[in-house]
Amino acid sequence: MDKFDKLASLSSDMETEADGEQECHLVIGGQQLPQIPIAEVAMPGGKKMKVLKTMLTSACERNCNYCVFRAGRKMHRQTFKPEELAKTFLAVYEAGAVEGLFLSSGIIKGGVRTQDRLLDTADILRNKLGYRGYLHLKVMPGSERDQVRRAMQLGSRISVNLEAANPGRLPSLAPMKQFTEELLAPLKWSQEIRKTEEPRGSWNGRWASTITQFVVGPSGESDLELLSTSEYLYKQLGLSRTYYSGFVPIADTPLEGHAPEDPIREHRLYQSSFLLRDYGFGLEDMPFDQSGKLPLNKDPKTAWAEQNLLHTPIELNTASREQLLMVPGIGVQGAMTILKARRRHRIASLDDLRQLGIVTTRMKPYVLVNGRQPNFQLGLFDLPPPRSRTGPRAFQG
Predict the structure, then answer these.
(1) CA-CA 20 to 30 A from 353: which of 35, 144, 267, 336?
(2) Do the strands 48-55 and 157-159 form a parallel or antiparallel pair, or are they unpaired?
(3) CB of 264 closer than 8 Å to CB of 296
(4) Three-state secondary structure call for residue 171
(5) Domains in the chain, start-ordered, CATH in brackets?
(6) Beta carbons within 10 angstroms of residue 244's beta carbon
(7) Measured on CA atoms in the order 333, 334, 335, 339, is the torsion positive or negative?
(8) Among 370, 292, 280, which residue's Cα sits nearest to residue 327?
(9) Alpha-carbon distance 141 to 132, whole Å?
(10) Which of 62, 51, 112 is nearest to 253 (CA)?
(11) What is the largest CA-CA distance in the chain?
């Protein structure tokens, strides 16, 4: 099979965390390429990047119950050699179709050997072919600490998919994987390396960032379980992001009859994850019900504000950055803009914020401006009874 046909086949089959996808049509060296799916992913700061997501091989010896590539599933498998894949990707990159590479693999002859092949590919790209673009490297289950270090030297980002919220949930998803020894350990190593070692030998003088992904739904986990692990990963292991992949059943797998996960649940998990990472929220602030689920009918920040700020709104002229970030409609940039504006003059009305480019509609029920609450339509909001103001988030204006 032609190398570009092989690339198109592997990339089409690959499960991704992409925010969007499109097909690229290229002519390289006079050759019309097959359609190759290109993922558009969100980078820190909101920038979108076109990334080729592909694999060294779609063959795999593991039997994950949800995975299209699980051992024994009937499908046509493809395999690249490291140098072949490096050169094929570089041709697509130099043709301007993509800005980066996301490289994974099925596991063959163990995680250590498979990781060596991934590292060989990355090393060829960086040190033989001179590639200096974005490179996301998967870390295979069972990889060794030195392999994690090398991946952090060669990659822009590395990832180890925990898949499940905790060890008790993993067997129903991936019965051959060990949560603590194979999946969590490399994430711990990456943080230890980042904290204790200088990034000597890295391609850009920095250690790669680290992320993970969860499969949401089929193991029966609660939102509380997922976000408890996410909070630990952010605060203790320095992860830059946690991804939540809502389950979609794959034919000819043990979970093919399981219902797909509600995409709204996935969206609420992302919103909550960002609150934990960027907004100063703690797990105790999340609006879980008694079964550990988030509300689907409203975003978690609004749900928190309805319980904590409706009856005691905060004063925009005196609120701290932390307090401002708890208000619906005020993001990280908006809070900074308000603090800067206050250094020049008091905020007289919400018109002052609108002139600064801040949308004020969502914040109206939860704020005071010069001691007065802006007008808002009561019918648009649920009005829960006042809560005790003894908790750590009982902010006063």
Answers:
(1) 267
(2) unpaired
(3) yes
(4) helix
(5) 3-261 (3.20.20.70), 300-380 (1.10.150)
(6) 23
(7) positive
(8) 280
(9) 27
(10) 62
(11) 72
Tokens (6 digits) for 171: 């067997």
Q: Which of 210, 221, 217, 216 has the alpha carbon at shortest distance from 167? A: 221
Contacting residues for 137 by C-beta, under 8 A, at least 6 apart: 103, 118, 119, 122, 151, 154, 155, 157, 158, 159, 208
Tokens 């250094």 belong to which residue?
Answer: 343
Element (H, E) at 150: helix 145-154
Query: Which residue do the tokens 């993001």 mark?
Result: 331
Rounded to an integer, what is the distance from CA 359 to the centroid of its chain? 26
Token pair recorded at residue 179:
């949560």
Residue 386 has pLDDT above 80, yes or no: no
Helix (H) or strand (E) holding 315: strand 314-315
Choose among 179, 217, 263: nearest CA to 66.
Answer: 217
Residue at token pair 């105790």: 284
DSSP state of 378: G
Q: Of the candidates 122, 98, 87, which has an alpha carbon nearest to the alpha carbon of residue 23?
A: 98
User: Residue 242's pLDDT is what?
Assistant: 97
Nearest to 225 by CA among 301, 284, 164, 287: 164
Q: Measured between alpha carbons, how far is 39 from 54 in angstroms, rounded to an integer?
A: 10
pLDDT in tens, 309-362: 999 999 999 999 999 999 999 999 999 999 999 999 999 999 999 999 999 999
**Residue 23: closest CA among 34, 10, 9:** 34
Query: Does residue 246 have a pLDDT over 80?
Result: yes
